[in-house]
Amino acid sequence: MSKGMVKNAAGRLVPTEVNGRKAFPFAGVGGHRPAGVKAAPRVATCIDYPADGNKLVDDIETALRKCGLRDGMTISSHHHFRNGDLVANAVFDAAARIGVKDLMWFPSASFPCHAPIIDHLESGVVHHIEGSMNGPLGDYCSHGKMRGLGVLRSHGGRYQAVQDGEVPIDIAVIAAPAADPFGNCNGVEGPSACGLLGFALADSQYAEKVIVVTDHVVPFPCVPWQIQGNYVDCVVQVDKVGEPEKIISGTTMITRSPDRLLIAEYVARFVRDAGILRDGFSFQAGAGGTALAFAIFLKEMMKERGIKARFIRGGSTKYLVEMLEEGLTDYILDGQTFDLDGVRSMRENPNHVNTSPFTSYNWHGKGNFASMVDAVVLGATEVDVDFNANVVTHSDGRLLHGIGGWQNCLSSKCTILAIPSFRDRIPVLVDRVTTLCGPGELVDVIITERGVSINPRRKDLLSAVRGSDLPIRPIEEVKKEVEGICGGPPDPPELAEKVIAVVKWVDGTILDSIRQVKG
Amino acid sequence: MSKGMVKNAAGRLVPTEVNGRKAFPFAGVGGHRPAGVKAAPRVATCIDYPADGNKLVDDIETALRKCGLRDGMTISSHHHFRNGDLVANAVFDAAARIGVKDLMWFPSASFPCHAPIIDHLESGVVHHIEGSMNGPLGDYCSHGKMRGLGVLRSHGGRYQAVQDGEVPIDIAVIAAPAADPFGNCNGVEGPSACGLLGFALADSQYAEKVIVVTDHVVPFPCVPWQIQGNYVDCVVQVDKVGEPEKIISGTTMITRSPDRLLIAEYVARFVRDAGILRDGFSFQAGAGGTALAFAIFLKEMMKERGIKARFIRGGSTKYLVEMLEEGLTDYILDGQTFDLDGVRSMRENPNHVNTSPFTSYNWHGKGNFASMVDAVVLGATEVDVDFNANVVTHSDGRLLHGIGGWQNCLSSKCTILAIPSFRDRIPVLVDRVTTLCGPGELVDVIITERGVSINPRRKDLLSAVRGSDLPIRPIEEVKKEVEGICGGPPDPPELAEKVIAVVKWVDGTILDSIRQVKG
Q1: Is any Cβ of chain A less than 8 angstroms from the Cβ of B353?
Q2: What string of H, E and C letters represents the secondary structure of B438-462?
Q3: Rounded to whole angstroms, how far apart are CA atoms B420 and B51?
Q4: Tell me, what's the pLDDT at B199?
Q5: Is B361 part of the contact surface with chain A (CB cutoff 8 Å)?
Q6: Which of A12, A467, A489, B287 is 20 to 30 A (C-alpha) from B225?
Q7: pLDDT recorded at residue B245
Q8: Cα–Cα distance between A419 and A399 in angstroms, integer?
Q9: From residue B453, how far is each of B189, B471, B483, B484 by CA, in Å?
Q10: Is B354 touching A (CB cutoff 8 A)?
Q11: A250 pLDDT more than 60
Q12: Are A164 and B51 in contact (CB < 8 Å)?
């Protein structure tokens, strides 16, 4: 065993210290009990803020200086603009001009549009990133080029880490489509409307300093105030905060692949045949092509049977909005709008409710919404025969995706992974997932184009679908069939010893390590 | 000077310790800078809460036991039902049955309906009360019968005290007109709808344990969730949580007194003539008869001149709701609904926005709404020639009123006290107020039926009304005239040495002491 590494309850080797902080190894689902109290930022006073409520300053650089930016600080940002964010790069460009070094960037997620941060990692302005790294930054990290360890947290895990004081944020920067000079802001108004700002909630509540950056200043009050100005230090007006058309990021198109359509249909039929589809039920499906197709199949079944959901969890798309508008659900409880119909609906429809990682996902709260959802449909890059799943690394070992709400959603009453059995002739069903992101005991059903595999732990589901005409098949059988097609199990990725990132579980413990790729 | 007492910056003798905690003497407006960090409740974990979100327990007693009620704890409650609250008494009755002693009751305010708490004070179940004591409980305290010191805080000061950890709440009990089994709740739905629940916000965020008591359980999700279930430990269903018709509490009738109508008219004319009445302006007026009459005079002036307000701060009444519905303001920013039209409007109109002591009044935030209001119209029990004002004790020295948002509103751009010059032949204008609640430097204008007296510090206002046909008169002149009518200045109240309560300033310092009345 490497020095400073321990084997955790999932049998994975994980470091005992992460970026200078003691780390707890994963202790099993529900096995880690937090000690201590919540983070406690300094008490502010109105003495230090303008009585007229006007906190506007000239530009991002001025705001960073006013907030006392210095070497080694942690700067956070949110990703509601996804690949259309224009603010994070501007913040680190300004930090570079100010001349500070060794910052930690703590985004709720980063995207290909943030590739310019690589220059700041190279120059030393940014020391390392803790947060999802989708694409180029993940690849950079995978090749061992980042100084600190990457830390991958779920949306709920990020809230937990901030709430628990594990990550003290020095300066939070919140890109806001609409704001007043006091700092009240929202994502539903203005030319760059992106829906909501829930990923920045923890940052606003717990950061020592908060900067709101907007391209649409309205007179006080900015209503609704999704982020409250009483937490905000400065407001900066810029030309453009984001390109909302890019929040779509290629994920929100219904699949045309016949295999994936078949998967989607199996999922919908499973939800129906297992008795989950009943009046007042709830579900969550992401914005990937298969998940969208599932929602459309399900919608037809609901109409056929006259069934209405109590709530659908977003990320929202026009398909969910249509269901709300057609009366097929009482509410959309939304954490992230994935298209402009979602944005419009959230602005106009009081039953399209904005949620946050606190309400939906925080494991260190007094419950959360995720465990109340009847069925959730998720993806994965790999799964094994014990139903363990990977969602962050590819079969070649490269870290290319964030966790998002994926881990948090596993606490749903029925967690379904809807995945192709192979991709590019590489099996998705493996002996051992490259990176463990979700413990198998929480994954209830794996549905591929080859059939429906139910976790043997879920005897209730197995007996519920008895008599269904769905192809219910043991996972091992599907795996063998796929290996026959692909010419055997996939080659294991070529990995070096060096750990370049860790995957946190929802309770803040370390679930797995990610190693550098060779070459 | 008595032992353990110091003279503060306002020249008032105040204790250096209050209920076992070190107390800071008032250091002047803006003179006290907080040190330290916010209160930090224990980190919770979903391990301890039901995955299905159902936190319903049988009754209040069970909930209190589940929350670990024991001797000496602090139990908080809110006063959105005002004199129609049915929950606080039930909580202390249950505590008495459990057999605990020496509780501290920390209501946001208490009313005559809470007179039964006197029995619990007598029996030792309740040790003392920190919170507004309107009527019988204040009288009880004034006679020196309560064991601890009463602590009077403004709405903002109460949020500050909880946020800053000055008052750690062990168990918060939140009476909610509508709630789901998870604990999400609001004040706008259900048979006992009272409007909003903002006075319970700090309690939900910072208390170790939170009990929601409701008479209207809805399936998850209860939308809007004015209080978030993620903070809630237990939900209890009872027959009735409150009598919303009693939120009116006799304060929301327009005055018929010719003197008070004259005062109201003077106030409206002053706001107009001083140039405050302009497009996009804002104001706050309470729910007293004079304040309501003022709003009606002002409304006519606004219609005459085609002026629209940007926002009106509530307490809301049907008169403000009419202004919103007639397009005379963009928003009502409401902290407390004072009648059922207010409740309806908040439920139905997205521009009738619910606020909290955090957004509106907390001095230990990064600014608050109160200082952005162009003009506020308030009452007082006494004022002196230096514009110092009293709002909690009567001329006989008895403590009969709470502070409410009164102190917080003093930071408005123009603070107007609209008061009769005498009551029951006792002058309201005095040499020295019995209890100092508001420092004179923050009171800009005193308007009685005898004229408009502008604080000499406000040279800008004095010059703004030059040429107005209002009776602008020095405060000393009005005082002399009133003393002529009443046969001299009022007799000073007969007070004992013993301090029975303190008045806190918005920053948590001690502004004044209240002494026991003799006899």
Answers
A1: yes
A2: ECHHHCCEEEECCEEEECCCCHHHH
A3: 59
A4: 98
A5: no
A6: B287
A7: 81
A8: 19
A9: 44, 9, 16, 18
A10: no
A11: no
A12: no
